[in-house]
TrEMBL record:
Pfam families: Sulfatase, Sulfatase_C. Its cofactor is Ca(2+). Residues 5-143 form the Sulfatase N-terminal domain. GO terms for cellular component: endoplasmic reticulum. Keywords: Calcium, Hydrolase, Metal-binding, Signal. It comes from Spizaetus tyrannus. Belongs to the sulfatase family. Coiled coil: none annotated. The gene is Arse. PANTHER family: ARYLSULFATASE D, ARYLSULFATASE FAMILY MEMBER. This is ARSE Arylsulfatase.
Amino acid sequence: FYFRNKHRPFLLFVSLLHVHTPLITTEKFQGRSRHGLYGDNVEEMDWMVGKWLLDVIDKEGLKNNTFVYFASDHGGCLEAHRGNAQLGGWNGIYKGGKGMGGWEGGIRVPGIVRWSGTLPAGTVINELTSLMDVFPTVVHLAGGAVPQDRVIDGRTLLPLLQGTVQHSEHEFMFHYCGVFLHAVRWHQKDSGTIWKAHYATPVFQPEASGACFGRGICPCFGDGVTHHDPPLLFDLSQDPSEANPLSADTEPL
């Protein structure tokens, strides 16, 4: 692909099975990670991205004019298991995981960008972006314009990445599980405060597990979710683990 297109613009989309279930790892990487089979998958994915993509881009002299964006479509899957052994991922301090429409563990994903010679290395941007932003970013890079006859939810990432703006254009973000709205995030303008309201949350099985081990994956509706009226409200800027829901008594605003 690179050899055929290296002298003209190209778009290469690579969707890896890693680290989705089933966890299929080649023999070379089995047992490599102290985090078990899931960790082996992470290490193999890391090797594939480096060896098959970034190294080839560099060798073909495309490093300085190729925009690379690495991301995931959801947080780590917690319910993966083999027998009694839990094989799922780990989402750090963030609650929940894949298949949960609102909790941070299912929403926060890697966002790693490389464009040598154009974007400064080592920059960390703590602003709200979305996978919906990939489309307008690619259109922008190609010198095109997004359709004007419909609402485009994404925003080009380039101004944020290049430092010409300091804040994301996303003031609100809506988090769905399937077609059901589970949560809404509001990044209050001219403020570092980020509010999140949960209208529905999955029923964890067991209750304190933080996952839906009984079902294998959390459902989006029916008896598998709890509806909240008023919604659960969190200040993510102070409580990123979503451990302490606010009330009118604790947060008058």
